[in-house]
Amino acid sequence: MIHSNTQSLLPVIADFKTKAASAPAGPLSGICGFDGFIDTFIRMEAPDTMADFGPKVAAAAGIAASYTVRHEGDKFGGNGPLFASGLHGLWGGNIDVTYIGAMGRNEVLPIYREAIGGKTKRLVTLAEPAHSDCLEFRDGKVMLCDLRSCAEITLDRLLDRAGTDALDAELRDARFIAAVNWGKLVNVGAIWSYLASRLGQLGRPAKEVVLFMDLAEFEHRPAADVAGLLESLGSMTRQCRTVLSFNLKEGWQMAAHLGGDFHGEKQPEAVLELVRFLRAHIAVDRIIVHPNDGAAAADETDAVYVPAPFCREPLISTGAGDNFGAGCLSGMLLGLDLAGMLLAGNSSSGFFVRAGRTGSFTELAALAEAWVAGPLPERL
Q1: Does domain 6-58+69-373 match CATH 3.40.1190.20?
Q2: Do the Cβ atoms of 289 and 271 come closer than 8 Å?
């Protein structure tokens, strides 16, 4: 099904409001990981779009070029920390997240303690954070990443730093695991598999824990690595309620790996067909594909496309995808169907890029209702 106009979303919004209002009184517990970055933000001024920047760089090859930018400082980053922060904001703090990732070699760096220490139950650091220079344009971003520390994120390091007994205690209480950025963490697949299998060993019933996975940019990973991951997903899905999320480019890349050709297809009908194709070939419960102006999802019986409150000039773009993912995971924890899950994700991302922060469930519902009523402002 394609929700081709916002009016058709009114019942979806109503269901979201009802279930958000009846969210559990006690905090849900879960684990999020496993990366960590220090992001240096650079706002491109002239040229200020990727479409204009690319040809200029190509024309300057072999010579030199200089462009006007505005440095906006360093911030904590990484898909996992941003995802964890998003969960805290969505649930108004009524959620207990243990974050495990790269936040310092031997102890958590102050930038992470200040940013997410108060938003999490426990922080466990495994390695030095990686570093990204984020070139932000009006129509997207370019991430220049030093990933050398990412290889230190291993299962052995996790068990050593988190402690097997403490980790088991986390898994006994967990309602969710958010596992992101497989693309840059070359050894993290073993962690994902371990956590899913350990749930069963600890006696957790099958399908009780939601496992949300986002591969992030994975085009540099060898085809054998991708095949190995896909093979491991079946056992994870037998234990967990699994959801695998892609942005549109990543969806095209995964489809190509599986023998499908969707590259360049951006219309809702094509995105819906893409998500159906991926769900038919990947052993997970739900597949999500999210372009900038909407999202599609498929499960065993259904597929749906939901438009998004697109923002042409975002206040900030880094973290929008992580807020989308946190919204979708939250939708699953609230018991929403595919359309409701996507509405939660789209509204979370739409709020974040306009306000520069994560919105609460109440704020997301208000945003969705205002969007249905008429054009949304670019800032909140």
Answers
A1: yes
A2: yes
